[in-house]
Design a protein that fits this description.
The structure is a single chain. The protein has 16 helices and 14 strands. The chain is an alpha+beta fold. It has two domains: 187 residues, Cytochrome Bc1 Complex, Chain A, domain 1 (2-Layer Sandwich); 160 residues, Metalloenzyme, LuxS/M16 peptidase-like (Cytochrome Bc1 Complex, Chain A, domain 1, 2-Layer Sandwich). Strands 1, 2, 3, 4, 5, 6, 7 and 10 form an eight-stranded mixed sheet that branches. Strands 11, 12, 13 and 14 form a four-stranded antiparallel sheet that branches. Strands 8-9 form a two-stranded antiparallel sheet. The protein binds zinc ion (ZN). The site of zinc ion has 4 residues, from helix 2 and helix 6.
Length: 459
């Protein structure tokens, strides 16, 4: 209570630029999560305040592509090629050597782009914050950098070919059968949404991208009103908030940005898809190179964190350990070499997915594998989840949580780095490091103790 009054008073002096919305203590993690909102731009800013001198920051934008040209990925590369205030070729990379940073990165997710860093030094933190904000809000986006980083035509001995850093990266990535499989799965599981597109870029489509389109994408999505800022660590928060506003945010007006991920179209019956894929250059068994998965579209984990947590536990029960039902039925039996890419409960997208299957199987045995998965699930519905497997899965989650707290600052940062602007819910979804996690786990354990486990059948 006192704390919020203090921060609000500071805000008063700063002209109400940032308003503290909620302040919640989390004694288990020795931190307080403070959610601020910019009064003009409505940008949420989450500060996980701790005594940890390791300071971290992530600037995120929700970036929802509408084609396969890899616009978010190319933009992520280009914003690091110089900005208004730092008009050098690579301000980002020159800071890598010059600063005392302990982590600097940028990455493109299916519906967001993230720019995280961390450092132990306060002055370095402010310098990095300036470089990051200037890069993302005021990048140069020069044609020459587009040709270098995104895509270009170049003359070689073989004639005209496409080049460019992103084009070559994606050409390499998409020849990997696993990446190809995951992309195809996403494309067909989420029809009508941004997830049907390859945010990294499909090498077939990247050459259609132009720098004008990239600049329009930047204008639309890289606006403070479409961003979230995460801060972690012991810092003078009023000074950090003032820096963000006085040096950057005050130059903007609120902008309504349509970047919400739409719900995927529901199917009335299962669809069966068969996709060709390049063979592995060095297969363990040339006769068993197929991948097969059954995947279910689930509801948003944010909408129902308890059910989502139960599905995570169910995924662990089904897949983890040599006594788990799917391990015995699919791997021990020799039907496949390993689980299929993306196996388990994946809630990294707005609507989650539950996937089961194998990699390294024979195409002729696919019907049999589908039947085995069906039988295994029906067995769980009829008999319930074996209590020993359930207890073991929950125990493993608790151990992971304890181990994760040892590497808190980076983890906490990752906890927050997410596209949706509901901080606590997102935090829960990304990791077990969250207050909701504790409550969900406790209620599940209570259910176990009273013989009413939360997982009585599939969801
Ligand atoms: Zn890249």
């Amino acid at each position: 209570m006192c704390h919020s009054f203090l921060v609000n008073s500071l805000m008063l002096r700063r002209g109400f630029t940032w308003q503290l919305h909620t302040s919640t203590a989390h004694p288990d993690f020795n931190l307080t999560s403070n959610l601020y909102r910019h009064s003009v731009l409505r940008t949420p800013l989450i500060h996980l305040s701790t005594k940890d001198t390791h300071k971290a920051c992530a600037v995120l934008f929700r970036t929802t592509p509408e084609n396969d040209r890899g616009t978010p990925h190319c933009l992520e590369h280009l914003v690091l090629c110089g900005s208004q205030r730092y008009p050098v070729r690579d301000p980002f990379f020159s800071m890598l050597n010059r600063s005392l940073n302990t982590y600097m990165n940028a990455w493109t997710g299916p519906d967001f782009t993230a720019y995280p860093f961390s450092t132990l030094n306060s002055k370095d933190f402010e310098n990095l914050l300036r470089v990051y904000l200037d890069s993302v809000l005021f990048p140069r986006l020069r044609d020459i950098d587009f040709k270098q980083e995104a895509v270009r035509l170049e003359m070689t001995e073989k004639g005209l070919v496409y080049g460019g850093v992103v084009f070559n990266e994606m050409k390499g990535a998409m020849t990997e059968p696993q990446a190809h499989f995951l992309h195809q799965l996403s494309k067909h599981l989420y029809p009508g949404t941004t997830y049907q597109y390859n945010s990294g870029g499909d090498p077939e489509a990247i050459p259609q991208l132009t720098n004008a389109e990239l600049k329009a994408f930047h204008r639309r999505f890289y606006h403070p009103s479409n961003s979230t800022i995460f801060l972690y660590g012991d810092m003078d928060i009023s000074r950090t908030l003032a820096l963000i506003d006085e040096e950057y945010f005050h130059k903007f007006q609120y902008q309504e940005v349509d970047s919400e991920v739409k719900p995927a179209k529901r199917l009335s019956a299962p669809i069966h898809l068969k996709q060709p894929c390049a063979p592995s250059p060095a297969p363990i068994d040339p006769a068993a190179q197929a991948m097969f998965a059954v995947s279910f579209l689930c509801d948003s984990a944010c909408a129902d964190p308890y059910t989502a947590f139960c599905l995570s536990v169910l995924s662990a029960v089904l897949h983890d350990g040599q006594k788990s039902p799917l391990y015995l039925a699919l791997l021990e039996s020799g039907l496949g070499k390993e689980y299929v890419p993306g196996a388990g409960f994946d809630h990294s997208t707005k609507e989650a997915a539950f996937t089961m299957g194998v990699n390294g199987c024979k195409e002729a045995e696919i019907d049999q594998i589908a039947a085995v998965i069906d039988t295994t699930l029906r067995g769980i519905v009829d008999k319930g989840v074996p209590t020993d497997l359930l207890e073991s899965a929950i125990h493993q989650i608790e151990i992971k949580q304890v181990l994760a707290s040892a590497e808190r600052s980076e983890k906490q940062l990752r906890t927050g780095t997410h596209q949706r602007h509901d901080a606590l819910c997102s935090a829960w979804r990304q990791s077990s490091h969250s207050p909701q996690y504790q409550r969900v786990l406790k209620s599940l354990e209570r259910g176990l103790g009273s013989g009413k486990a939360g997982l009585s059948g599939p969801h």
